[in-house]
Each structure stands twice: as C-alpha cells, then as structure tokens.
Fold these 3 entries.
Entry 1:
Amino acid sequence: MPYELWQWVFFAIAAIVIGMSKCGIPGLGILNVAIFQNVLLAKDATGFGLPLLVVGDFCAVIAFRKHADWKQVLGLIPFAVVGVIVGFSVLGSIDNAQARLLIGASLVIMIVLYVANRRSKAPKKSGLLPRSFAPMIGCMAGFVSMIANAAGPLMTLYLLAMGMPKMAFLATSVYFFTLLNLFKIPFLVSIDIITWESAMANVRLVPFVMFGAFAGYYFARKVNQRWFERTAFWLTIIAVGYMIWIAFGELWWTYHA
C-alpha cells in the first residue's frame, strides 16, 4: 500500500542519518533503525532500511577505500554469516509484535555496549574485548544485523578494542558491513520483507542518503562529534523506549483480545 506523507518525512530523515552514520558520525547508527521501527511494522522496517544501508556503505567505501584492515574483515565475515543464518531462521518464525520486541531488546543491548565503550578509560589502548572474542562478536553482529540492522555499536566496541587508528577503524567497519549487508539481501527478498514497492521507495530516498554521506564526511571534521553522538543517543533512547512500549501493547492485545 502507498506510504503517507508523514512516513516519507521520517524516511528522508532516516536516510540522511544513514549517510551521516556511514561516513563519519557512527554514533548516529542506531537512530535510523529506531525511526524505521516506529514508522513501519517491525519486519518491514528491517527490509526497508537494508538497501539504503547498502547505498550508504558504497558511499563510505569511496571515502575510506584505502584504509581497511582486511585481516579483521575476513576474520569476522565467516562467523557473521553464521549469525545471519540464525537470525534469518528466527525472523521467519515470529510475528511483527514479537519481532519488534526482539529488535527492541537487541537495540537496548547495543545501547548498553555503546555506553560501556564510551565509559571505558582507555578503549584505544586496552579495549574491552580480547581478540579471541572475534568468533562470538562476528556471530552476534550477523544475528543482530539480520533482525534489526543494528550491529554498528557492537562492531564499534570490538574494533576500538583492537586499537585501530581512526581511518583504519572506519574503513574496516565499512567493508565488513558492505559485505554483510549484500549477503543479507537475498534472505529478506525470499520472505518478502524486501518487496518491489519498498525497493522503489528506496530509489527515491537514495539522494537523501548521499546528502547525509557528504554531510557526515564534512561535519565530522568541522563540528563537535560528541554533540552529534549525544543528541543521537538520547533521541534513540526515546525511540527505542517507545518501540518497546508499542511491542508490549501489541503482544497484550494479541493474547487478550
């Protein structure tokens, strides 16, 4: 069915956020997920956002193409594939209310990890996670990415723990999510979560992603990034809280109607 004007407004905002988060302001990452989850049904939101994330990934690849640590990327991808397959089996067996609640819980975990990372005294030197955690991190990233497109904070935590320089950190994250997001598309198409209608809507939103990418690349070097991340963090807290509240309401009506 056609989308309404208010939905298009939020779609455009989320698309800009995607571009900005991919090209220099990673703290915005969860906000676009929360926006889509509050505008659409839970499963539809996951499928709607994925092609736009791929567009943002390609923009970021152009910006950071020379700095990736391929040893890290290739070391994580096989485990992420396992996580995607597990997430796919879960996503196909639950309804929208259950999916919204599961995605909300995943976002809460991602937020907790993000806060833990921000409060780490010396994340770039010692980090919070040893390198041996790579298999678990890869699986978790694949699972959360499959059900909610929300594995960004988890990868941020892990890559910072590896003590990477800024450009290597950004580029490694970009290539990892580019490969992972491309791998996820056929799964979501097969269960009609990505549809022809949503794909056509995505095409109209590509300019907003590109605008966000340019803005993120520019403003990340000119404006206080902490301010952006703090604003995005609190907006995300509100959006995730509202999403979980709606999920509990949907479940209550489902089982008590």
Entry 2:
Amino acid sequence: MIRETNRHFSFDWITIIIFMLLVGFGWLNIISSSHVGETLDYFDFSQPYGKQLMFIGLTIGLIIIILAIEAKFYERFASVIYIISMLSLVGLFIFGKNVNGATSWYGIGGMTIQPSEFAKAATALAVAKYVSDLQTDIRKFQDQIKTFIIILIPAFLILLQNDAGSTIVYGAFFFVLYREGLPQIYLTLAVSVVFISILSLKFGPVITSILAALIVFTQYFLNKKKPIIVQPIIITIIAIAMSIGVQFFYSNVLQAHQKDRISLWLRLEKDPTKIAEMRRDILYNLYESEKAISSGGIKGRGFMEGTRTTGKFVPEQHTDYIFSTVGEEWGFIGSAFVIIFFILLMLRVLHLAELQKSQFSRMYGYAVASIMFLHFMINIGMVMGLIPTIGIPLPFFSYGGSGLWGFTILLFIFIKLDSNRINEW
C-alpha cells in the first residue's frame, strides 16, 4: 500500500545521516582492502569495491521503496513476509549454492543472494506482530513457547546450512522479549548457561560442579524466605549435568577448527608448538588481523597506506575482517570514531523505540538495535581476538550486497514506522 499523499511524513534524519556515514566509510575501507594494482577505477565492477558501489546504488532505490510503502503494511503483512522468508531458507536445501562449506546462497547469474540476511527483518516483524497482539501475554508460558518457535525456526534452518554465526544472532531477540516482560528466570538461566559453559571448559566439570553447588546453597541460606530444600538440590543437579554436557559437546560434537578457536580464546592450549601451528593454520586470519590493528597505532598509516592491508596478509579482509583495515589505516582514533557512530546509531534507535505509541513499533525498534548490537559486538570482538572467531559481517561496513540490503531493510522499516508515530493507534 502506497502512502496517502495528504499525510505529512518526517523521517529521522539523524539516523539516516549516521547510516550514510557508516556505509560511505565502509566503502572506503573496502577499497583499501580489495584494491589490486596501481590504477584505481571506482567503477570496475569486477572488483569488490566496484560491486559494493553498485550495491550501494541499488540500496538507494530499496530505501525509496521501503519509505514509500504505508507503515501499517509492515504490521498487517508481517506473517506473510515471515512465511515467504522461511520458504526462501527452506529452498536453499534444494537450489542453494555451497560457498566455503555453507549452503547459504542462491546463485543468480553472476551474483549470489543470502536469504538469511533478510530473515532477520522478517523474524523481527513476526515476533513484534505476535507479541503485540491483544491475545498474547508474554508472561504466559504458552505464549512464550509460541514466540520461541517463531525465533527458533529460522535459527534452526540457518544452522542446518552450516552457518552457526548467523544462528547466534537470533539470541538478540532475548533482549527484545525481556523489555516486553519476559520473566527474569530466563535472564538468570541464560547467564548461568554462559557462566557454567566457560567454567566447565576452563576448569573441568568437577570444579565447576563444586562452585555451582557452593553458589546455589550460599544463596539458599542467605535467603530470608527459604524455599524447600529440594529446590537448591535440583538446581545443583541441573548445573552438574550441564557442566558435564558442555564437556561432552566440546569433545565429541564440535569440529576440530571450532575447538581450536575456543581453545585459544580460553587459553586452554598450553603447548607453544601447538599454539604456533594453530596460528599458521585455522587461526591465521585472526593472528594477521591482530597484527594489522596493532600496527596502526594512534593515528593509523593512512588511507591505502596500510602495509598489511595492501599486502593482502589478511585473507578476505573486505568481508568479516573489515575492521582490521580500519585499525591499521585509521588507527585508534579512526577505530574509536567508528565504534562511537555505531553506538550512537543503536542508542538513537532505542531512543526512538521508546517514543513509539504502539507496542509493535517499539518491539521492532528494539529488535533492530539488538540485532545490530550483536553483530557489532561479535564482529569487532572477533577481529580483535576478544571472542572466538564467528563469521558474521559488520553492519553497513562489510562487503556484500545481501548484508547491506538486509541491514538496510531492517533499519529503514523502523525509520518508516517511526515516521508514522502520529498515526499510530
């Protein structure tokens, strides 16, 4: 439905300007990380920077379409958009193209399209639509289960494509649901799972079980309103089972390269020879990325002057490792500005989300900020070696049409919803 011409729509230009700055600066870094040879032709569409410029041009048309459609369309047809998106994920198992071990792309001519990038916006719309329905109460268990199913369907389909990185992003919806009244027990459970998993891998299931029991029973005896003794016993048993399960999963389910990444992150490997071998093999990208960032210093080496970037020491640097180009060529100052702009964008979206009159728009806004935050945190943390290597792009920065269009759709649907605040009911 096209907007009515007699309505006045004003878009949040602060958000749009930050978006433009991130996309523009990202393109400059794609030029540095992918340019080969002495001459530079910005319109050489055989090179990644030329293709990205074409993607950016098509993005403008995409934005115009998104903003031209009536805001209520996205709420009314959220379920239809979600179903179409899920069918596109299922279709990959029949028509998908395998790239680097993941069957996540459709090959269309000389281009590839990754539907998982668009599934994020579709899932955000579907979750916001279901939870904001008058019949839904997120505090009720049956409604929680239905909401989790909406989120888990795309996550499971993407996991089957061997794309674990994109699957993790769906954990962002936890923040959205928590804002809308999801019981605190889920937050406690999530923190406990992460805490127990790390302790179990670092110190083993025995020490982890003892620590868990001490924490549980200490909290029990300090609680003035003591529950029955069976409760802490059950919690302790669950914690012990979880710590043993984590060790089993790590030893018997994860692939060798995944275990190596976790091992280096948690400093589990002590053999210097083994560590050196890992850095030459599966962790080569990370090792070179860290060296590129550290070589940038405070001010950086300058645009297209980074020796490790121009020397192509970091393979496929223009994709998931694009932030290492920022660190080398623009230094600490440039990296800080990029991080600040990302934070400003996310805070701006959260601020606008709180101003929404409808629960649907508010929830969708929180989904936008949460998804961007998880991508931002994981990608930059991965490039700097702060978290295990997980292959997901940096929003608006990394090379790729699907990623750029997916995040553009995600963000500009919210910009459209926000522009319609005066007409919300």
Entry 3:
Amino acid sequence: MGYIDTPQTQQANRRFIKAAMSIPLLQRDRELELARLWREEDDRKALHDLVSPYLRLVVSTASRFRSYGLPIGDLLQEGNVGLMQAAARFEPERQVRFSTYASWWIRSSMQEFILRNWSIVRTGTTAAQKSLFFNLRRLRARIDGSGEYLNATGKQFIADQLRVPLRDVEIMEARLTGHDKSLNATVGENGDSEFQDLLPAQGPGPEELVTEARDAATRALWLSDAVAELTPREQTIIRERRLQEDSPTLEALGSRLGISKERVRQIEQEALAKLKTTISERVGDPVAVGLVAG
C-alpha cells in the first residue's frame, strides 16, 4: 500500500525532517563504541543512538530522488529501512565510518523502491539498466541542458559513458519521457473508443478461424475416404495407431488381433503407403495439404 500524501502526512514529514536534522552527528570513536554495543551485546539503546544521528542521510537522499514523482513519505520510509539494514550488517572492526556504510544502504533501498513503483511496467532489471535509469537525466542535462529528446550523437555518448547498448538508451529515454496510460482511457475528442481498442489481436482473426475450420473439415473428409479403401484389418490398425491420442503398443494391438507385433508394424507401414497413394491421386501431395507428416 502506498503512502497517502495528505496535509496530515505532509506535516508529519516536516516534523520528521526537522527532528532528523537537529540531531548532532557522532564522533568516530563514539560511533564505533555504539556499533560494538549493538553488535556484541544486542543493546537496543545503542542501536537507537547509532542510527538517529544519520536520519539526516535519509532526508538528504530522499530529497535527491523527489524528481521521480513518488511521495517523500514513501522515500523516507524506504530510507529508514535501508538505515536499519546497514545497522544490522555493520562490522565496526573494519574501521569504516557507519555514515559511509549507511549511505549505500539508504540509497540502494530508495532506488529499489523507485524501480518497483515508478511505473507499472518493471524497470531496470539488470545492474546496467538500473545505472541507466538513474543516470540518464543527469547525462542528458550535461549534453545540452535542455532535458529534451536526445539526438543520435547524445544517445551514443550516454551509451558509451554507461557502457550499455545504444538500444537500451533509446528504450529507457522513451520510458522516462512518457508515462503509464490506462487501457481504459478514452481516445479522441468524443471518447468513443479506448486505448485497449487499438491493441492488435494476438490470436488468429475470425476469417482465419473460419478458414482453418473449413480446411480441417475438408482434410478429415479426404482422410476418411482414403481410410475407407483399406482392408478391415488395415483400418483397425490405422485408427488405433494413428487416429487417436492414446494409441496402443504394437505388442498390445497384435495380441488383440492374434498376430505378432512385427506383423502389426508391417501392416501399418503398408496401410500408410496406400493412404499416401490414394490421397496423392485425389488432391496432390499429402504432406503439403497436411494429411501426412513429412
């Protein structure tokens, strides 16, 4: 469920931001001390004292991503999740500042949220595409400062800078300069049709279905006439072995007919040859008309 941006939530966001920016930062030694207390002794107060000063990182990172059109409250929430993930994984013995480590987790959490929610169509499924999504606007502004559509040279420049295929740049630019449309949105001044009415059908059309049904009926008649010219035993073997889904084995059918499985195989091959000859004489190549496999 998304964050509802109401006057009340806006006021709550302002209170959160104000409180976060007022908490003083930690000195390196104190930061490491709190991290050790949390990691080694599960000290919840130490965890609170460790993460609280870096809520300002959540605020500053959220402000950088506001241009993607998502509520600031959602971004702050996701940033807080990233901050807590950083605290859970932080290893003070590595002598890295927690602020440096937390910045990565906060940014990563917000970026994942943006990619999931910016569009109903999944965006940025690979590391290269994610980099392209978050850097395209910046690089486009560097090229001409207008933020308008890129020319061929500009697209190639971005592809080279980010080491992605030119086609990926073209697709991502189209995604970022457009927006999602409902298939039920009306088209035209009168609104008599919807976008979904303009989508091409994926399956065969009515004419194709009718033609296919007619051809299938014709082929079935040709085959029925050809089978009728076989001997009764040949007809039984062809129907049992070729004209039903669960065909019996040669041995099972031979046992029913009182002959060996090898004899069943021979009769089957002779009957198929007769069918091909009969159909060829009447309609031409039986493979071409779809009656016999090639």
